[in-house]
Amino acid sequence: MPTAPPPAPASPWRALAVALLNLSGLGLGYAVVRRWWLMGVCWAATAVLLLVALPADPDGVPGAALVLYLVLLALAAAHGASVGLRTRLALLPSALIAAVLGVVLLAVPAAGVVLYDGARDEATERMLLDRLDRADALVAKSGKQDFASAEAGYRRALSAYGALSDDHPDSRAARRVPDRLRAYYETVAAPYAREDYCSAVAPLKYLRTVPRTIGTKDLGDLVGWPDDRLATSLYSCAAASLSAGSEGWTTQFGELLSTFPRSAQAGKVEPAVKSAVDKAVASVGGDDPCAAVQRLDGLDTQVRGLPGEQAGVADALGKDADRASRSARSGGYACGVHQYKDGDFADAVTTMNDFVRENPHDGNRTRAQKTAIAAEVAQTVPAAGKHLPTTASGGSIAVTVKNDSPDDITVLYTGPVTGSFTLKGCASCTSYSLGTTLGLGFKPCSDSGRHYPQRTIHLPVGTTYFVHKSRTSTSKTPASDTARLTPGYIYTECAYTTTGLAY
Questions:
Q1: Distance (Å, rounded) from C-alpha 115 to C-alpha 56?
Q2: From 66, 82, 167, 375, which residue has the greatest number of CB atoms within 10 Å?
């Protein structure tokens, strides 16, 4: 039987050629020495690597797979060199040509690496563009919600834009971020574009914080974009609330004056406040003067709380507050009259007494005093409050009021003439029992041996309503009397107290 051909003499060139051909990853070195199954192993390893690597992924080939493949290539080159050292070549005429071919074929894996890196870069670009699209979609979705609900979405989108610019500044996605930020600002500030100024305040304030997340290079002129819009929104929202008498305007005007003190919008604050004071002052003479007075009181306090960095603004606002305060005090008279006419006698008493105390030189002070007296009488005798009291005094009919009570009393009366006075308690008098006052022969102030504190006043003809109030015990209910005065008679009023009950 035939014998195997003798081994070829050792040739380093053949060893080098086989090693270089195997480094292509195609096992061609094994092909030229007829080791077909080993070539198949090389093809299989390369195929597995391609299956793992393709399609290209931003993360690249798994490190373990790449290391294992390189180890296999190194082993294939070393083993091929060992085999080729003493094995004659097939398919190629010389070792030199095989070596040159091996060097040329090294371009195959090198080109593969270059192409793969390009594909990987493109995959990364697509991934980043997908992130950009998701951020855009989040902005669009958030733009359909109110800002309170949308703020979290806006912040996530902004974080995505910032990450693209900071982490991948040379990517196509990063180059598109500035345009996306302009659309972002316009979406967040959409309430301002709709002239919904109160709703625009919060999103515009938020936009002023964006430079903390995004660099000014990407923002460009967007850095100051919200400022004028926020100033306009603060002014417009506050002015509308002030005009409507709603709450919150002081906070917004305060923010405007503090944040943008030299803006054109800040210059409109004092005229708006002055207009509101003028309107409230005019309302004192309207259908609801009490509401106008309350409004002026509120304006006085609220305006004084506004900041004023510029001296002229602060001085003007102070004058507006002073005017509101004066008008509120003087408007108390109109309010008390309104309450009196509406039958709110208890409120009228309080309002008129406050007016008298706060306005010592007002021309209505005397009538306010008499209205307070009449209102107090009307609380016990409602008929006394049918007409406002006049400032008239005196009359032709003498009425003597005596005090048959141990308590000091205040006598109030109203009718054609209104007034009040006090009587000291009767030192020798006592309270009567209820049974005594109900007896047929009961006549207070009839003991000729007693000295009853008394006072005589002169009243005109007509009906006068009297109320006697204890100044010693506030728990006793006032007593009342209605006197129809006609000429030719002497009238006496007598006050007394009963045990356990009032007069």
A1: 10
A2: 375
Strand partners, 60: none
Token representation of residue 301:
């306090």
Give the three-state DSSP class for 360. Answer: coil
In the block, which residue shows the tokens 């709703």? 199
Report the alpha-carbon distance of residue 271 to residue 311 in Å, rounded.
15
How confident is the model over 255-280, as a mean pLDDT?
92
Q: What percentage of residues in the chain have a pLDDT greater than 90?
A: 47
Which 3 state secondary structure label does DSSP give 136?
helix
Cis omega (within 30 of 0) on the bond before 55?
A: yes
pLDDT of residue 275: 94
Separation CA 500–CA 476 (nearest Å): 9
Number of helices followed by number of strands (H, E) in the chain:
20, 7
Are the CB atoms for 209 and 240 separated by under 8 Å?
A: no
Q: Which residue has the tokens 């270089």?
A: 20
Question: Sign of dihedral through CA atoms 139, 144, 146, 150?
Answer: negative
What average pLDDT is seen over the chain?
A: 82
Residues 431, 407: Cα–Cα separation, whole Å? 9
Query: Higher model confidence: residue 32 or residue 467?
Result: 467
Strand segments (E) across 3-100: none
Question: pLDDT for 188-197, tens place per residue?
Answer: 999 999 999 9
Q: Is the pLDDT of residue 341 over 70?
A: yes
pLDDT value of residue 100: 54
How much is the average pLDDT of 320-342?
93
User: Rounded to an integer, what distance in angstroms lies between the CA atom of residue 245 and that of residue 144?
Assistant: 31
The encoded tokens of residue 480 equal 């009342």
Q: Would you state the pLDDT for residue 48?
A: 67
Is-contact 214 232, C-beta < 8 A?
A: no
Amino acid identity of residue 41, one-letter, is V
Q: Which residues, at least 6 apart from 56, have a Cβ–Cβ distance to it below 8 Å?
A: 116, 119, 120, 122, 123
Number of other CB atoms surrounding residue 285 within 10 Å: 10
Residues 105, 107, 110, 116: is their CA dihedral positive or negative?
negative
Asked whether residue 1 carries a pLDDT value surpassing 50, the answer given is no
Q: Residue 425 CA to chain centroid, in angstroms?
A: 62
Angle, alpha carbons 463-469-473 (nearest 5°):
170
- List the Cα angle 8/13/18 in 5-degree steps: 85
Cβ-based neighbour number of residue 295 at 10 Å = 23
Q: Is the pLDDT of residue 56 over 60?
A: no
Three-class SS state of 465:
strand
**Triad 157, 58, 113: Cα angle to 5°:** 155
pLDDT tens string 273-312? 999 999 999 999 899 999 999 999 999 999 988 886 665 7
* Buried-state track 342-372, b at ≥16 Cβ within 10 A, e below 16: eebbebbbebbbbbbeebeebebbebbbbbb
